Amino acid sequence: MTDKTTPKKPPTEKRHRAEELHEILQRANYQYYVLDNPELPDAEYDRRLRELQDLEEEYPALVSPDSPTQRVGAAPLKAFAEVRHQVPMLSLDNAFSDEELVEFDRRVRDRLNSQQPVEYACEPKLDGIAISLLYRDGLLERAATRGDGTTGEDITQNVRTIGSVPLRLLENGVPEVLEVRGEIYMPKAGFAELNRKAAEAGEKTFVNPRNAAAGSLRQLDSRITARRPLELCAYGVGQIEGGTLPEKHTEILRQLNRWGFRINSEMAAVKDIQACIEYHEKLGGKRGELAYDIDGIVFKVNDIALQRRLGFVARAPRWAMAYKFPAQEEMTLLKDVEFQVGRTGAVTPVARLEPVFVGGVTVSNATLHNRDEIARLGVKIGDTVVIRRAGDVIPQVVSVVASKRPKGARDIVFPDHCPVCDSPVESTPGEAVARCSGGLVCSAQRKQAIKHFASRKAMDIDGLGDKLVEQLVDEGLLHSVSGLYDLALEPVAGLERMGEKSAQNLLDALEHSKDTTLPKFLYALGIREVGEATARNLARHFGDLEPLMQADEESLQEVEDVGPVVAHFVAEFFQQAHAQEEIEALRQAGVHWEAEETGGEEQPFSGQTWVLTGKLETLSRGEAKDYLQRLGAKVAGSVSAKTDSVVAGPGAGSKLSKARELDIPTMDEDEFLEMLRGRGIEV
């Protein structure tokens, strides 16, 4: 008896026809979206697509993930899953003048120890959303947002609906694992049509194409995304395994183009930094004529080998720079000035403005930076001022229209006492910033200090968001960072939007956070100028908190990347009685860490560079990197002649091949774990 639920097996001729239609439609998409040279009329494309849909409906076994019929159709999501980028999606440093770009070039050549001109790749900086596309064996496996550079959101269902995103790559030679990075944007014409339809339907319109693109990508229902006129433009690569790519950035992009990706037709390679300046001027002149919004030009050292030599700083590559176009400016009225207090006590004047539309958004507040900037501008309350969105992001007051000053304009009086806690406001000689002297007595500083302490890269206290911190402080339940560990279930559960379960989850997260590391704890303390990298260097150098707290400024300057200014802030912090009391209270509450292996020659891998590649099964990449750093090693993202050792897990590709070519020692994960245990690390 035949099982009626068993799908019909497609006859050979039907399977061949489906494969033929796949190829025809895939080629048509490439011609239309990538080459801008359609070869099939729309009606013919629709007929072929309908034929394939009919075949797949009759024979479900013919349906495959890369089928042109599968771009839309999945059920709406409840939420986006989290994705961790194997290779971080770093941001770019910005330049705003020719001089800053020339200075970037000087730094590049100095680091390369060369006075020869450097060839640069030039690309328009699209004003869209950065995206990561992961292909395995040529098939699209996952699409993710940039997020914070380390962790993004899985938006695969939505990205599959975008016609210019290939579901299967063309041609041969594609690496086994290929991560393509690009910008998803909305062309000007599509944006105008989208807003026209929204207005006709009585719906809310979008402010600018970038907001429209971002909103479209974050729809939980991919059918909505499919109706939005989104495009993808590839600009680079991330993770690569089981294959190689060309050794110049522009050639990598051309190879991506051959595999099915749209790249920017304005891309060029130029011989030196002067040619970069000329390119920036030329594109700036035709900015308004382009079919899409751009907010600057990205310049990258074109030679990949030189990129590897230049490396990265904490958040950005040393080999790339975004040269922003002059920000858009508008005039408006400065109605008042208020003063805000930040985590380090900095008192910042904020201009309250008559709302004005600048660079795609409505601006009602703008920074005046500090007392010196107010004096430089000569600005008064009641003035007509020019507002600029610096780098198309941060609104600021850039000048005063003196001819429009009214008779009743008032001087801006900088406060002598903190507007929040009434403590004296102090200025340090040589510093433009004035600071509240109240420290954690000041609720504004206390709130910011607690938010920083709880942040992901610090103590990582899950569920302790900004609004909850505000409530806890305002309700008198929290008076210090250490007070977090004294919170009780009943009063927390009584807060707005909490309840007993949420309160218990918070208390559990607080308990979990007590087991930390010294670098994370130092970063969480919020010492001025001590970021993640400096905290790690301090921990490595001193090994534990006690010797660090007793160190003088001279001793602190022996730490890598710690100069006189940072040394002064660190020493000053640990000399303060309230800081010592807070640290002791935190330790009494149970916050603890293991001592670090001290730096210098005593560390077994001091001065060595290691590379991790492939999928580690027992450890995460982050854990493996942390263990190596504890042993004094630097962990790099690429293999070079300077690499000392490579740890290769399953799926290791080009990095392992290159290590073997250069005769660099390699080990698998089991050998790596054994090595760690031999160094006294329990894994």
Automatic annotation (TrEMBL):
Main EC class the enzyme belongs to: ligase
EC number, as in UniProt: 6.5.1.2
Active-site residues (renumbered): K125
SMART domains: BRCT (SM00292), HhH1 (SM00278), LIGANc (SM00532)
Positions with a binding annotation for Zn(2+): C418, C421, C442
Any one GO MF annotation of this record: DNA ligase (NAD+) activity
Record field: catalytic activity: NAD(+) + (deoxyribonucleotide)n-3'-hydroxyl + 5'-phospho-(deoxyribonucleotide)m = (deoxyribonucleotide)n+m + AMP + beta-nicotinamide D-nucleotide
Residue sites binding NAD(+) per the record: D42, A43, E44, Y45, D46, S91, L92, E123, R146, E183, K300, K324
Keyword list, A-Z: DNA damage, DNA repair, DNA replication, Ligase, Magnesium, Manganese, Metal-binding, NAD, Zinc
SUPFAM superfamilies: BRCT domain, DNA ligase/mRNA capping enzyme, catalytic domain, Nucleic acid-binding proteins, RuvA domain 2-like
Domain of life the protein comes from: Bacteria
Similarity comment: family membership: Belongs to the NAD-dependent DNA ligase family. LigA subfamily.
Function: DNA ligase that catalyzes the formation of phosphodiester linkages between 5'-phosphoryl and 3'-hydroxyl groups in double-stranded DNA using NAD as a coenzyme and as the energy source for the reaction. It is essential for DNA replication and repair of damaged DNA.
Descriptive protein name: DNA ligase
Organism field: Microbulbifer taiwanensis
